[in-house]
User: Which sequence fits this backbone?
């Protein structure tokens, strides 16, 4: 399955000679490479109901994606029944009339997606974009005859928005040039022929537009010289108005009513000092539901659109709501629900009766045989190195019962992302089988805690995030049940950068590190990331074309500080990664290897930004366990 090379420079040049072999590794002995940890497979939650994907057209049934079958249930106590069947796995892009769905495919993680249309009744699919064009994130019109999607087919350095009419010989129109890679279609109303869509300049700067799907006229909503972050917007049926989520008037993402004629805002959730994360509106424009992200946990609210008054759903369970969808009649709202101690549950909330109902298979409630460890939230103190101001860093911890427990710190990617307490079988394995305490911080730059917090690591403030890791190490040292001398740090993508930088900043305080598709050289990264992503990344990380920024990014790049790293390092990288080019991982490996420091390197030739194929993911998991056991001295 693998091949070993003696010099890094030969790795890519040797690929052709390996035939079907997909893994290139270096620094790993055969006995370690072949080691498998079978027990890790049992750390899968059985509480994993098929995901909720919407409502039947008559509002009476909830629909669930069962792979090649869509199931339905009338009530939470009903039998689950077949609703639609397909020869192709159903995607989340189901047409509003439930006759078609769209799906996208790439090759070996290169993210150059090709888009396909599947006819459910005919059990047949056809491509609606060319192979090699990056065409992705489709969105259905409510009339089912048109599709909007993003593509960089015209120019590799920008992403445009297209509309294709599948009822008229697949007529395709480019409607918005330079729409942005992170741009999104929020809603599409066929009754007034308009699309609500957002162009992303940065996470803190987004432009909201109305696009006419007949004339293709584009009009900016609420043009402003002030930077505004929008996160959602929906048309209100039977009104010249919409609900918009933005941070224009607050530190947080708030829900607003926007009159499209008067061009006036009414702030609905001014009293809620957390981000509104999702909204859904019924077909009559009478009722809506929304959730709020309160310190990483979701809280459900019901909104009366006529009065703009909302009610909080009391006794709501602690967890995360996704795919919030109200039924067409506005009587029930359904959603998928996630927690640190189970994979997925399904609920509906009956608006009239004010009842929350949990869906299970009749007579076969799903239960887990393992008592999974619940994530607990806490904060630790960190100080801004420039202002000397103190901050609370929100964090989740999965506690081991062992005394003097080793510690596994996991840093999320992004950096504009928020780690939340959803189920993670690998964390559960580390805690229960290896006695390791897992700590997952939302260091500065994370979202969910206000826009100022998210900006604290931008540009020349990048090392604020690394300062937070040092503060966490101080907190670990202060805990009697944690072993400060056995700390591992792990991270993916931007989190991988934090791993590498932390190893050089705190060389004697971190025992080992695991870097997955991490950024090791900021200059190489910005020069080699895909053309259409580069400008957006420069806003967050800094523009290397500016001399001051160039010198700063060069100074903090881990590859230029590799001589300060004393701890063993494990690197995972995908050859086809369009975001973080594989050359950065090779630079890091080569530098450490020349210094005769311990470094394990794994390159997957059939992966992109992360290891997603099952065999590769299994290898990554097993090698990580071996690495941790060796360097954290675990029997």
Assistant:
């Amino acid at each position: 399955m693998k091949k070993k090379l003696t010099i890094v420079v030969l790795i890519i040049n040797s690929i052709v000679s390996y035939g079907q072999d997909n893994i290139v590794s270096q620094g790993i002995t055969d006995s370690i490479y072949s080691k498998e940890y079978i027990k890790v497979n049992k750390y899968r939650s059985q509480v994993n109901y098929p995901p909720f994907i919407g409502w039947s057209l008559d509002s009476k049934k909830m629909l669930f994606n069962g792979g090649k079958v869509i199931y339905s249930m009338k009530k939470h106590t009903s039998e689950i029944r077949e609703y639609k069947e397909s020869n192709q796995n159903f995607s989340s892009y189901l047409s509003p009339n439930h006759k078609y769905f769209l799906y996208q495919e790439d090759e070996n993680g290169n993210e150059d997606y090709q888009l396909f249309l599947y006819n459910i009744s005919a059990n047949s699919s056809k491509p609606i974009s060319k192979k090699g064009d990056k065409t992705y994130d489709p969105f259905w019109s409510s009339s089912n005859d048109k599709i909007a999607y993003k593509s960089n087919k015209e120019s590799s350095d920008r992403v445009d928005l297209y509309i294709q009419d599948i009822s008229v010989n697949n007529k395709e129109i480019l409607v918005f040039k330079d729409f942005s890679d992170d741009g999104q279609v929020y809603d599409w109303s066929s009754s007034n022929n308009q699309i609500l869509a957002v162009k992303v300049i940065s996470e803190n700067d987004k432009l909201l537009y109305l696009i006419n799907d007949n004339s293709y006229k584009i009009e900016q909503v609420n043009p402003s010289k002030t930077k505004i972050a929008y996160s959602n917007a929906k048309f209100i049926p039977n009104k010249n108005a919409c609900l918009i989520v933005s941070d224009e008037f607050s530190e947080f993402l708030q829900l607003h009513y926007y009159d499209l004629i008067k061009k006036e805002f009414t702030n609905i959730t001014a009293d809620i000092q957390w981000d509104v994360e999702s909204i859904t509106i019924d077909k009559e424009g009478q009722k809506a539901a929304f959730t709020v992200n309160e310190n990483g946990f979701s809280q459900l609210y019901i909104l009366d659109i006529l009065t703009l008054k909302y009610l909080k759903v009391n006794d709501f369970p602690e967890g995360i709501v996704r795919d919030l969808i109200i039924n067409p009649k506005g009587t029930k709202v359904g959603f998928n629900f996630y927690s640190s101690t189970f994979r997925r549950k399904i609920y509906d909330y009956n608006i009239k009766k004010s009842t929350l109902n949990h869906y299970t298979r009749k007579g076969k409630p799903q239960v887990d045989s393992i008592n999974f460890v619940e994530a607990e939230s806490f904060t630790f103190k960190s100080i801004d190195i420039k202002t000397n101001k103190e901050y609370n860093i929100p964090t989740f911890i999965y506690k081991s019962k062992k005394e003097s427990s080793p510690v596994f710190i996991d840093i999320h990617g992004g950096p504009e992302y928020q780690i939340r307490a959803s189920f993670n079988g690998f964390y559960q394995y580390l805690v229960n089988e290896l006695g390791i305490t897992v700590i997952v911080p939302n260091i500065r730059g994370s979202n969910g805690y206000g826009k100022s917090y998210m900006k604290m690591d931008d540009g020349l403030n990048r090392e604020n995030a690394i300062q937070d890791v040092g503060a966490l190490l101080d907190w670990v040292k202060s805990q009697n049940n944690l072993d400060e001398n056995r700390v591992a740090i792990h991270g993916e993508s931007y989190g991988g950068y934090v791993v590498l930088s932390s190893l050089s900043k705190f060389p004697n305080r971190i025992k080992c590190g695991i870097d997955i598709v991490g950024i090791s050289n900021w200059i190489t990264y910005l020069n080699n990331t895909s053309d259409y992503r580069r400008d957006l990344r420069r806003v967050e990380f800094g523009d290397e074309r500016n001399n001051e920024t160039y010198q700063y990014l060069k100074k903090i790049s881990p590859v230029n500080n590799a001589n300060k790293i004393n701890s063993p390092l494990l690197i995972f990288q995908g050859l086809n990664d369009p975001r973080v080019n594989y050359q950065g991982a090779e630079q890091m490996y080569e530098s450490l290897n020349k210094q005769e420091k311990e470094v394990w390197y794994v390159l997957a030739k059939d992966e992109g930004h992360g290891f997603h194929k099952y065999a590769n993911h299994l290898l990554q998991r097993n090698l990580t366990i071996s690495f941790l056991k060796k360097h954290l001295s675990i029997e």
User: Anything to note?
Assistant: The longest helix spans residues 614-631.
